[in-house]
Design goal:
Blueprint (H helix, E strand, L loop, with lengths): L2 H33 L3 H14 L4 H13 L3 H14 L4 H16 L6
Helix pairs in contact: 1-2, 1-3, 2-3, 3-4, 3-5, 4-5
Amino acid sequence: MSPGHDKILRLIESLESDRESLVADFENLNLKLYREGRYRETIEICEETLNLDPLSATTYNNKCCALNQLGRWTQAIDACNKALKIEPEQSPARGNLAWARKGLAAAGGRNR
């Protein structure tokens, strides 16, 4: 390999590491916002996180929780299904999916 090729590979590795760090920071922020009851902001940060990492089952699950809190059951179900498609054994997503389905049934099939 040429020295230029090695430099490009190191740059790509650095960018990937920066992206992973940013995703982790966003995931921490969306948890903080959720704990503060700032559900709409949580959803916005989850969307930004998913733009960086569209395969983050954790972020889809966090989005589901916030949507559940807002009574947006159908969107919550969609988010949980995406989390489980990525990571089928994620037990928090299973519980949150059950919460969303129960909420939707109690609301007569409609969001709040």
